[in-house]
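Q: Structure for this?
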Amino acid sequence: MASMTTDVIAPASTIRAGFVGGGFMAAVHSRAARAARAELVGGTSSSAERARDAADRLGFEAAFDSVDALIADPGIDVVHVCTPNSTHASIARAALEAGKHVICEKPLATNAADAAALAALAAERGLVAAVPFVYRFHPMAREARARVATGETGRLLSVHGAYLQDWLAGSHDDDWRVDAALGGPSRAFADIGSHLADLVEFVAGERITRLSAKTRTVYERRATNADIATEDLVAVVVELESGAVGTLLVSQVAPGRKNALSIELSGTDASLRFEQERPEQLWVGRTGASTIVDRDPARLAPDAARLAVVPAGHPMGYQDAFNAFVADAYAAIGGAAPDGLPRFDDGLRAVRVTEAVLASAASGAWVEVAA
Amino acid sequence: MASMTTDVIAPASTIRAGFVGGGFMAAVHSRAARAARAELVGGTSSSAERARDAADRLGFEAAFDSVDALIADPGIDVVHVCTPNSTHASIARAALEAGKHVICEKPLATNAADAAALAALAAERGLVAAVPFVYRFHPMAREARARVATGETGRLLSVHGAYLQDWLAGSHDDDWRVDAALGGPSRAFADIGSHLADLVEFVAGERITRLSAKTRTVYERRATNADIATEDLVAVVVELESGAVGTLLVSQVAPGRKNALSIELSGTDASLRFEQERPEQLWVGRTGASTIVDRDPARLAPDAARLAVVPAGHPMGYQDAFNAFVADAYAAIGGAAPDGLPRFDDGLRAVRVTEAVLASAASGAWVEVAA
Amino acid sequence: MASMTTDVIAPASTIRAGFVGGGFMAAVHSRAARAARAELVGGTSSSAERARDAADRLGFEAAFDSVDALIADPGIDVVHVCTPNSTHASIARAALEAGKHVICEKPLATNAADAAALAALAAERGLVAAVPFVYRFHPMAREARARVATGETGRLLSVHGAYLQDWLAGSHDDDWRVDAALGGPSRAFADIGSHLADLVEFVAGERITRLSAKTRTVYERRATNADIATEDLVAVVVELESGAVGTLLVSQVAPGRKNALSIELSGTDASLRFEQERPEQLWVGRTGASTIVDRDPARLAPDAARLAVVPAGHPMGYQDAFNAFVADAYAAIGGAAPDGLPRFDDGLRAVRVTEAVLASAASGAWVEVAA
Amino acid sequence: MASMTTDVIAPASTIRAGFVGGGFMAAVHSRAARAARAELVGGTSSSAERARDAADRLGFEAAFDSVDALIADPGIDVVHVCTPNSTHASIARAALEAGKHVICEKPLATNAADAAALAALAAERGLVAAVPFVYRFHPMAREARARVATGETGRLLSVHGAYLQDWLAGSHDDDWRVDAALGGPSRAFADIGSHLADLVEFVAGERITRLSAKTRTVYERRATNADIATEDLVAVVVELESGAVGTLLVSQVAPGRKNALSIELSGTDASLRFEQERPEQLWVGRTGASTIVDRDPARLAPDAARLAVVPAGHPMGYQDAFNAFVADAYAAIGGAAPDGLPRFDDGLRAVRVTEAVLASAASGAWVEVAA
């Protein structure tokens, strides 16, 4: 059996983490922090009662009464921001200003100006500021990126991407994300299209430069929200730096699709396909013979192999990827420079692509994505 | 074992068929004609020698020296046109004017005006005039269409379509289709995008109304062609009559993809996915539980079941679909009105969608597809 | 597009075929005969009325009143035997004695002595006598065999085979095959296990030498049959000439499985997996990287490529395989020696394996398969 | 998004764990212990130096010089035994005798007598004693079991199981497991066949009663081991309590198969297929229409849903399953009675099945599995 007895990181000293928010993402963040051997100092939420409940459920040492109190605690090194979208920017700003490292859920902000200011602030203060574009942390996504980087695929020609979900497919399905006041002006694209665009650019190693988009709001009224303005689905044609063209389809109303993020990049020499729901394999298409590459650490690129903590055939999944993201962010806090860590600059980038999508959909014209 | 002992059709009297062209498609057409129990009267090709060779290979009773001679033969009821694209319209016109039924390869013409004139001529003469949008004849494509028609999918929301091939992926791969003088002004879209658009509209039961497209010519010089102007790949955002939106990606330069035509339609109640390379199954996506529907004649819609000539688990394929298309066209010649037979109106429709794609790609603007 | 404009065979002169039986298999045989450009002289069935009906449905020139009359017709070269199992041997014998070539459905006979006598008779008369082990005629099954033969898989170590169906899964599902008087003493194994064993031996290039089997009759009473003695499912451990070992599971009562024939052979260097329901691909497993080999004629072994009548990505299926089988059988009648044609010796072999299975199941001991 | 904000367990008080061994399995155990919020008190290994290395790598508070010292530590509640097979029994015995709870890697012992004695000792002392048949902890394996238990599959008819790996496929691949002195008299079956048999019985809810097996040692000499007597592959026919029959194929020399554990159970009403390498789905086969059931907590049986810690479409994997196993074992230590926890009785059961396999292979006869 392959000898994989070391965990992803061995941070120099114990990281002391605090958590804002007590929902699903806070649970995922806190598991990853624990796996990275952090001290889970405490958490806070939208009320003191909820903060205590979250602390009990998630195993925090303490519950804080307010975000301010948590941020002010000198025993906390890093703040995980796991709250509704519209609050990300202000909490992240406060944490950075208090000298804390920050791991902030996406979208980093609901407009590019705020996101840019946060990225600048983090840089100015020399703090680690990361955004969980977590799908970058599947070993086979790294393997895809490494193969593009070494030229195996040749010049990029086309991109075929989709991110399809169905958790808002029913007319009564509802969530705070649906409300623009809490979720921001974009929903489907900001929520999941941003992951798709990030993964395309991460693997391709080049940027989307121009796009033509169409958005659609299927249900203008849901269980608790009315006058809904945020989009349920988005269809986009994109052009990349190298001249590659492609399509992105993003939907939260696609019955039967749970979390179907897929990208297929075709170059002059080979194609690569990665599917988040089957993250253990990478399809490598060649005119001669196509190949399924298994996540076998012994045969992957180093940056992919280092994320493989169990042997091939023992499936790794979403929490494993999240664990690797947090481990790398903590390693950065410890002074390392892990490859591919998504930082606030990447969070800003996602907001810019989202704004281009909304602008194109509004104008019916091609729009350049701000560099 | 299910009792499927009757072939798709039992035409009233024997159809007498003639074939123009001697390449791959002529072979496919002639096999289908034989399966439909036609008399394979004769064929012609680009030279008398080639005509004799094709007649020998494909089992025609006679070789004709010219298209004119074949069309003039009173012993021929139907002419199969299997020649390079730029010649389709003139041969089809001559055959119709001679009172022959016509089965003409797509694209029916290289511009909409010619295609419209042909459709009008066929209607005026009361002749059967069909275009092989053959993917309509997979039982599970029919099943998908039937499920949309009965409302199982609800209101259509999104379309996710692709048609990816790699037979022109090498810079030296070449073909007459690459030359606009023979193949027409569009290549990838006219050749395969037309199949994709036809299948989307056929299954959805509604039309693409507007689109925004981007085309790309990767290789401007191939083995024998230079100054190539026809596109290798196309990315499109489409809007349909009902307001559904979606993406279509079409490429002949996607390494590892052989004939990867796929459509996924998502409605308010269910999604459907059909893949031409796995034509024996239909994925039905529902928020609750998704289902794989096998091609089991006992459980399909009547229009799907009638095309199933072997039991479930005994794969049907491309030639079976082509056989069903020709059988239905011959049945129409015999006076029947088979559901879903693609006629010259459908060939015209495909040219109009193709022209809209080229127009949008040229202007960078959304373009309405002519009704 | 690859140039595949020739059909599998071009027989020297037209073969004149007669058909005994009018059910599903007669339809499949007759389509294949037509595709091979035979003259479909006539057919007969269990009554004169049924014979006329079959002739109408299947497009035969004439209906014969009796098997004897059909066999006696000097205008018939080859007799296709498509009747219930228990009648195969006597009809095949009569046809051979009348100097006809024979294509006889499996099982060739319901005991090895009869099958051996038929094989000897065919050899003595110098007649072509074939049994439709049709799964041999999928190009990728041939490709698998070619790869084993050239040593790509190394020494054979294990065999993992299954043939699962569900058409008898309901307690009321019934058929003449269930009745030992018509179907013979074995049902599931004689019917489909024989295909599985044949394909394993055909691809492996070596024989099953010993086996230990367990059979089970789930329903002793069905809609019209009672006191049912024939087995619904069989589980077998096999040993092959080279010392390879493996398992075969055969069932006609496996809900959801339509015609799930699969074989996976593992050798010292590589594994191969072929699934009849996905016949267009071959999985090649290697410790380093596994590969999906598409049915791309340009890249297959010659014996596989010659059976590929459409390009990669245009699915071939069951009828295509059957067409190739009949074409090869007719080519043999025309004097050719096509590789891999299953003859009466192979039909005898299947009966011997079946008898070993029944013997082992009865005794509870390992049984040698007669050579 | 579904609200899954609670981890699998919330143990009443912190469990204090000690670890014997420092290899791959110790890493997996220790991650699971950390995820369950245990205190990782310390570990030991085959030397003091290795113990310190393991403690550093795996994040233990202390390194113990010897197994005896670790077991004697009053600050340890539970001992995880992750050493070579031949040492399991003696370490587990010592730990139980010291009043510690034990989680012991399989095989629990290298013979049934030792395993039975351990199970008896654990019962007598009232200690939790578990064996990581970890594949029981995939939510969809639980879902399969729940569906069998509620009668959805009907009476069980057949079992189709396999466990195929390739990490010993090369003649030079080697490991302590190959040496019977360290690994015990059975290798492939004890190592992985035991998982397969356990999962079959766990899901089916009934036991294997009789079997006929064939084993094979492909390489009698590897890199460091010679005169190898332990088997590389095993083929088995099994019979279960209800009369169901089936096949099990187990191999560690199957090129391209990494950890391919699969079971397919067919009953009178439905079939179920679970594949460990794709643990997020369960195939439910029915004659009418087959279904893919996604791991969607909202729609699973309670015992499956409680193991689902992230929403559908966010893949769970091997470590998640292991975390759930350890969480349940710790919950049992805390006084709970988690359903489906594999205890020493199950470890004994696996040894008995293994001994039956070896006995049948040696004698060539059917063997009853000791109850």
